[in-house]
Amino acid sequence: QVQLVESGGGLVQAGGSLRLSCAASGLTLSTYAMGWFRQAPGKEREFVAGIDWNGGRRYYVDFAKGRFTISRDNAKNTVHLQMNSLKPEDTAVYYCARIIYSNKAPIGSWGQGTQVTVSS
To answer: Cα separation of 115 and 112, whole Å?
Structure first.
């Protein structure tokens, strides 16, 4: 059974940092491009960042550029999202997913997500 488990969220003040992790079971992440998404209350889930299968290419949406860094450790079957200079508008549930790197579309199942709350 494929399972993605996100962790590392929490409550942080504006300007602070968090490092999110995504661990996989029943799935070898090294064969997939991976992405992070987020969903704020009352909003659609949106793409944040993506990384290809070996980390050679990374893509960020505008609000993540310069503040967020996506990385992966294929030996540990994990993907991470380092988030710096956090803003209240970054408050959301963050999810990882396999993606099609060319169009950043998610594929497969979602994990439960991890809540990030940024206070002003």
So the answer is: 10
Q: How far apart are CA 61 and CA 80, in angstroms?
A: 16
pLDDT tens-digit profile of 96-105? 999 999 999 9
Work out whether strand 114-119 and strand 18-25 pair parallel, antiparallel, or are unpaired: unpaired
Residue range 84-98: average pLDDT? 98
CA 110 – CA 120 distance, rounded (Å): 29
Q: With 0-12 CB in 10 A as exposed, 13-18 as middle and 19+ as buried, what is 45?
A: middle
Residue of 81, 84, 62, 74 lying closest to 27 (CA atoms): 74
Q: Which residue has the tokens 């944040």?
A: 48
pLDDT for 1: 82
Write the pLDDT tens digit of every residue in 5-24.
Answer: 999 999 999 999 999 999 99
Give dist(CA 78, CA 116) in Å, integer. 19
Q: What is the pLDDT of residue 2?
A: 83
Beta strands 10-13; 114-119: pairing state: parallel
